[in-house]
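Inputs:
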Amino acid sequence: MAVLEVQHLRKSFGTVQAVEDISFSVEAGEIFTIIGPNGAGKTTTLEMIEGLITPDAGHISFGGLNWGKHADAIRMKIGVQPQSSAMFDLLTPEENLDLFASFYPKSRPTEEILRMVNLTDHRKKKVKSLSGGQRQRLAIGLAMISDPDIIFLDEPTTGLDPQARRNIWDIVLALKDLGKTTILTTHYMEEAEKLSDRVCIVDQGRVVTLDTPAALIGRLTKEREVRLAFTGDNGAAAEAEQFVRDLGSVTRTEREGAALRLWSVQPEDTLYSLFGFTKERGYQVEQVSIREMSLEDVFIAFTGKEWRD
Amino acid sequence: MNYRKQFSNMFLAQLKMTFRERQTWFWGIFFPVILMVVFMVIFTGGSNDDFEAKVAVVDDSPNEMTRMMLEQIRNMSVFNIESGEPVSLEQAEEWVKEKDVDAAIVFSTSAESGTIRLIVNKEEERGADVQAVSGILDKMVQQVNLAAAGAAPVYELQFEAVSAGDDDLKYEDFLLTGMIALSVAQGGLFGMVGMVEMRRKGLLKRLRMTPARMGLFGLSDVVMRMIFGVFQVVILSLIGVFIFGATLHIHIASLVVCFLIGALTFSAMGYFISSFSKTMEAYMGIANILSFLMMFLSGVFFPLEMMPSWLQPVSHVLPLTYFVDGLRDSMVYAIGPVSADLWIGVGIMVLWGAAAFAIGSWIYRSKSIAATR
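Outputs:
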C-alpha cells in the first residue's frame, strides 16, 4: 500500500526551474532513498512533500490526505529531520524532546526516544555542547517524538565520522523494524546501497530512474573489471595477458609490470580458464579481485556526473 | 489541540533559555547598571560644592580702583590668586596657556574708568569653571560700578529651582528613569535577534513542520520578555534608590500601561529588524544604530531642551522619547493615567509598534521560504 504518492510535481523559483516533473510512490514500511547531484531538486521536492512550499503543479497525497485540506492531520503523520541542526541549543536533549512532544496530541515517551537514539547518558547536557553525531541523533529523535508513520531524514550522516555514521544507520534500520516508512536523502552511495529498499535517482528536476539497488546495478552492462597481480618477473603477467586476449569473453586488457587488469562479460569463466593456464605454466598469482559494481557506477551511468563525497 | 499545554511548555522553554543566555543578563541588567553608575558619578557624585578657581591678576598701573578690586578678589573664597600677587601680562598668559590657572584677570584702568579683561584658555572657553569665574567677575564689576556711582542695588536676584512636578526632579531621578526606559527598550530592540538565528538554523522552518502554533510561540517569547523587563525595572530602581538616593513616586496604573505599551513597541521594532536581517551581525548592526540614535536624542541622559532647537523635532518623533517621558511621569511624578500627555505618548508608541509589526509580518510572509533558507 502506498503511504505517499507524488505525481508530476513542478516548481520554479523565478527563472530557475528547480523541479520539472517528479513522480513516485512510497510503500508502507520501506526505506526510500532519493539521491542526485547538487541542485537536482531533491530539497525542493522534499520541502514540497513536507508542506513547506506549495508546488506550481502536481499532487501530493498521504494515503488520501493532502496539504490543502488536511494539513494538521498530515503534520501528525510525518516526522522531519531537516538538513541543518534545527533545535534549541540552550536546552538539553530531554527538554528539546519534551517541548516538541507538547506540540502533538500524542507522543512517544521521551525516555524511549532517548534510548532509541542512544542519548540517555547525555540527556542533561546542553545541545550546544553535543557532538555533531549526537546532535544528528537528537534531530532524528525529534522527528520520532510524535510516533509518526513516515519519517523524512535529509542527509542525516553528512559531515559525520564513520563510527557516528554507522550509529545513525542502526537507528534507521531500527525504525524499519518498528514498521516506519523512511524517506532518506544522502550524499553517500554506500549508505543508499546499504539502507535503501528502493532508490530514486533525480537529476535536473526529473526522476532519472527508480528501483531496488540490486536491480539498478543489474541494469548496468555485464562487463566487470578483474585485477590480478603475479609474483616474480613481468613475464608471467605478459603471457597471461596474451592468453586472455584470445578468450571471447574478454573485451579489453591493461598491464603495468606484474599487475594485470582485464574486462570480461563472463568474469567467472575467464578466471577459470586463466587459472588453468597459470597452473599449467606454474605461475603464481598473488592477488585476484573482481571489482563490485556499485550504486556509484549506476549514478555515473544515469547522470553522467561524477559522484562527490 | 491542547493550546494551553503548548503555551506552557513553550513558555517554560523560553524561561530556561533566557536564564541560560549570559548575554541577556549582561546587556539587560549588568550593562545598564554600569552605564547608570558611570553617568551618576560623572554628573552628580564627582562634583564638590565648594567651587574654587585659580586666577592670575595683572595690574600694570595700580591705582585706587584696582587696589580695591584686588582686595575684593583676595577676600573672595572662590578665587585663589596664583603666587598671591599681581604678575606681568606675559606671565599670566603663560599660566593660562599651560592651564596652571583657570583665568587671568587683567586690570587696565585709570581711577575713573577702564576695562577688566578676562583671559581664558581657548580649550576651556565653554567650561563650567570659566563660566562661573566670568559670572562672578561680572557681578563684582557691577558692584564696583554701583559703588562708584554711589548707588545701592534696587533689584536682587534670588536663585531658586522649581520643576513641573510635585517634587524637585533630581538628576538621579531623571537618569534612573531614563536608564530604565533605555534598558527595557533595548531589551525589545535587541531581543529579537533569536528570530534571525532560528531562521538561519532552520528552526523556524522545523517548527512550522509540527502542529505547533507559531503565534503561541511568539506570545510565549513576548511574555518572557515582559517578565524580564519587570526584573530590569525592579533591579535598576532598587540600585537607583538605595545606592544613588533617587526618590521615586510611582503611580502603578500609569506605570503598567506605559511599561506594557513600551515593551511591546520595542519588541515589535526588533521583530521588524529581524524580518529583513539575514545574519545576526546585520541585525545587531541595525539595532545598534537605532539604539544609539535614540539613546542620545530621546532625553535618556539629559533633557531634550539641551539639544539644538533644529534637532528637537527629531526627538519628538522617536518612540523612546515618549517611553522615557511616560516612565518619568509615572515613576517620579506619580501622574495617574488621566494625563493627556501620557496617552499621546502611548498613542505614538502604539503607532510605531503597530507599523513595525505590520511591515515585519508582511516581509516574513512575502519572502519565500527558499529565499530565507
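Remarks. The two ends of chain A are 34 Å apart (CA to CA). Residues 162-177 of chain A form the longest helix (16 residues).
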